[in-house]
C-alpha cells in the first residue's frame, strides 16, 4: 500500500492546481491535481506533504488542515492511501514544476477542469467546507466503478 498526499493551497477564492503534463508514464497525465506525492520511508503524511509542496511549488506551508483520507485503487496500479490537506498559510515564490504547469484556479471553475471523477466528489466537499471524510475510490482505467463516502467529526 502506497501512502501519499495532496495539498490544496488556497488564496483569494482560488486553489493552486497542477496540470500533470511533463512526466512519462504518469497515471495523472492530462489531469489537474493538487501538489503532493508519495511518502518516503519513515516519513509521516505531514512531513511528506510539506516536502512535496515545497519541491513542486517552491512554497513553504505554515499551517496544514487535514481534510480527509482517500483509499484509491485502480486496475494495474498499487493501492494507495492519500491524505488530503488544505492550507491558507504559506510563503515563498512559485517555481517551475518539473511535473506540470501550476496555475491558480477559481474554486467556482475547479469542477470544469479535466479531473479524476472521484476528485470531483471530494473537491466539492472541500469547496463547501464539509467535515472530515474518508472516501474509497475504485477505478478501471479512467472509469470510476466504486465509491464509498463517510464523514466524521474529529475530536482529540
How many domain regions? 1
CATH class: Alpha Beta
As a percent range, the share of strand residues is over 45%
Determine the structural class based on helices, strands and strand pairing. alpha+beta
CATH topology annotation:
Nucleoside Triphosphate Pyrophosphohydrolase
Biggest beta-sheet profile: 9 strands, mixed
| CATH-defined architecture | Alpha-Beta Complex
Instruction: Sketch the topology as an H/E string, one letter per element.
Output: EEEEHEEEHHEE
Distance between the termini: 26 Å
Extract low-pLDDT stretches: none
Count of β-strands? 9
The averaged pLDDT comes out at 94
Going by CATH, the homologous superfamily would be Nucleoside Triphosphate Pyrophosphohydrolase
| Radius of gyration, whole Å | 15 Å
Count of alpha and pi helical runs? 3
Task: Please tell me what the overall shape is.
Answer: globular
State the helicity in percent bands.
10-25%
Short description:
The protein is an alpha+beta fold and 156 residues long. The chain has helices at residues 45-57, 107-110, 117-127; strands at 2-11, 14-20, 32-33, 36-38, 60-74, 77-91, 100-106, 132-140, 143-152. It has 3 helices and 9 strands, in the order ββββαβββααββ.
Protein traits:
Nucleoside Triphosphate Pyrophosphohydrolase, alpha+beta, 156 residues, globular
Describe this structure in words.
- The chain is an alpha+beta fold.
- It has a single domain (2-152), classed as Nucleoside Triphosphate Pyrophosphohydrolase, CATH 3.90.79.
- Helices cover 18% and strands 50% of the residues.
- It is built from three helices and nine strands; from the N terminus they run E-E-E-E-H-E-E-E-H-H-E-E.
- The chain has helices spanning 45-57, 107-110, 117-127; strands at 2-11, 14-20, 32-33, 36-38, 60-74, 77-91, 100-106, 132-140, 143-152.
- The chain is globular, with a radius of gyration of 15 Å.
- The model has no long low-confidence stretch (mean pLDDT 94).
